[in-house]
Amino acid sequence: MNPTPDGLQLPEPPAELRDLSQRLGERIAEEIRSSGPMTFDRYMAMALYEPGLGYYVNGLHKFGDAGDFVTSPEQGGLFATAVAAQIDEIADLLDGSYTIMEPGAGSGALARDLLKHLKTPPSRYLILEPSAALRQVQYETLAALPSELSSRIEWLDKPPEQAFRGVILANEVVDALPVCLFRTTDEGLAERCVDIGPSRLIWADAPPGKRLKTALERLEASLGASLPPDYISEICLDLPGWLRTISDSLAEGVVLLFDYGYPSREYYLPERSRGTLVCHYRHRAHFDPFVWPGLNDVSAFVDFSAVAHGALACGLEVAGFTTQADFMLGLGAHRWIEQTQDEHQRMRLAGELKRLIMPGEMGEKFKLLALARAFNAPLGGLSESNRSDRLGAEVHERRLD
Fold first, then answer.
1. Which pLDDT belongs to residue 76?
2. Is 372 helix (H, G, I), strand (E, B) or coil?
3. What residues are paired with 181 via a beta bridge?
4. Are the C-beta atoms of 316 and 255 separated by less than 8 Å?
5. Cα 167 versus chain centre, distance
6. Which of 124, 170, 175, 322 could form a disulfide with 326 if both were Cys (CB 3.0 to 4.6 A apart)?
7. Which of 33, 120, 69, 31 is nearest to 295 (CA)?
8. Residue 108: CB partners within 8 Å, gap ≥ 6?
9. What is the pLDDT of residue 251?
10. Which residues of the chain have pLDDT under 70?
11. What is the pLDDT of residues 188-198, one digit of tens each?
12. Number of neighbouring beta carbons within 10 Å of residue 379
């Protein structure tokens, strides 16, 4: 077992995986020796996406019971059923053929189950996935679909240049975008960087770069207060660019972003003074991103206010913001279970629904931010509650009614 700085004991990986991690660690160390302490967003990008070695591209199993974490689609079919009901509603209003684009499709479970449940399947299901290793996982997951559905699936390295009408769907993607880390000190704001220690990578403070400094000044202005002393948190500088990249080709339709996080005023609460960065390794959550690079998922909670502001800058509108629980209840997930005749099946679905909607499980932690372009109809998934007022005054004023 290998202890993290917070005392959690993590099981040792087998020798071949230790070797993979050591090779990635050496590549990171080489860059630090060449260029000096590395910004954390650069470290996170290498830890997750470095070709052949990063967590999401090295071919290791990531999802489900045999992986490191379980997402909503891996809980069973109810989440996909709810998303399908919402997409069917959108498709009916688009009145014609439409496209679904899913950036970062994970194991492919959500795509598989959506295509099974949609009453009006899309003419094209585009999976935006640059990782060859994850594409292979998705191929295998989707192989059992009938050809009438599987023929609609296309894998892309980048969003299509041709405009389309439809839905962009991203489930637990934004949390994996690399973030910058910062800390307030007596001398002002510092950027948390990565350096080489005696036996492992360590934290090192540096003056913030221009982009980070400007972003933090805007953040404090939006909060209406300075952050307290010795406050550590994170901010995603590349979020607006990512939003623009995935949404530019959407001519008409809706973007559905499911993830865990908070609006800015909750994200940067004084008591949340150690930030939200979290790592997952064999279903253990811990807070040391330097343990076995390439073998751990590294993520940060999502600042949904920042996502909403980035969306407005991209020409999108905020259709609404709600919890995963209210999204599913608004679409009638509880009624689907009541209509199930088989007692054993009903009990299984009830347990699945509990995990998806209970506050102590995934119901309150996970949120939906719905964005729209040239689409102003209400969404059934927002009928139970719409909490867009919590995203900030500017967002609420411009929200679709």
1. 61
2. strand
3. 192, 234
4. yes
5. 17
6. 322
7. 69
8. 127, 137, 138, 139, 140, 141, 142
9. 97
10. 1-8, 60-76, 340-341, 393-401
11. 899 999 999 99
12. 24
Q: Rounded CA gap, 369 and 323, in Å?
A: 9
278-286 own/partner pairs: CB under 8 Å, 24+ apart: 280/68, 280/69, 281/10, 281/68, 282/10, 282/11, 282/68, 283/65, 283/68, 283/69, 283/70, 284/8, 284/10, 286/4, 286/6, 286/8, 286/10
Q: Please name each of the domains of the chain with its CATH number.
A: 10-178+235-401 (3.40.50.12710)
Question: Cβ–Cβ contacts within 10 Å for residue 61, how many?
Answer: 11
- Which residues make beta-bridge pairs with 234? 181
Report how far residue 193's alpha carbon sits from residue 208's, in angstroms, rounded to the nearest whole number: 10
Which residues are CB-contacts of 333 (< 8 A; sequence separation ≥ 6)?
78, 81, 82, 353, 356, 357
Site of tokens 């770069």: 209
Whole-angstrom Cα distance, residue 26 to residue 34? Answer: 12
Closest by CA position to 309, among listed 362, 267, 272? 267
Sign of the C-alpha dihedral computed for residues 80, 86, 92 and 93 taken in this order: negative
Helix (H, G, I), strand (E, B) or coil at 133: helix
Q: Tokens standing for 204?
A: 């090192």
- pTM equals 0.92
Are 219 and 268 in contact by the 8 Å Cβ rule? The answer is: yes
Instruction: Name the 3-class secondary structure at 185.
Output: strand
pLDDT of residue 3: 47
Q: Compute the Cα dihedral for 388, 239, 74, 279 and give only its sign.
A: negative
H-helix or E-strand spanning residue 91: helix 78-94
Structure tokens belonging to residue 346: 């009903």
User: Is there a contact between 66 and 361 (Cβ–Cβ < 8 Å)?
Assistant: no
Residue entry with tokens 């637990």: 172
CA 388 from centroid of its chain's CA atoms: 19
Residue type, 364: E
3-state secondary structure of 2: strand
Q: Is 386 helix (H, G, I), strand (E, B) or coil?
A: coil
Give the residue from 120, 143, 374 showing the smallest Cα distance to 254. 374
Sign of CA dihedral 39, 41, 43, 45: negative
One-letter amino acid for residue 113 of the chain: D
Taken as a whole, the chain contains a residue count of 401
Distance CA(80)–CA(114), nearest Å, equals 5
Per-residue tokens: 131? 């990782």
The pLDDT, as a whole number, for residue 1 is 40
- Closest listed residue to residue 106, CA positions, set 151, 82, 77, 137: 137
Strand partners, 164: 250
Rg for the chain (alpha carbons), in Å? 21
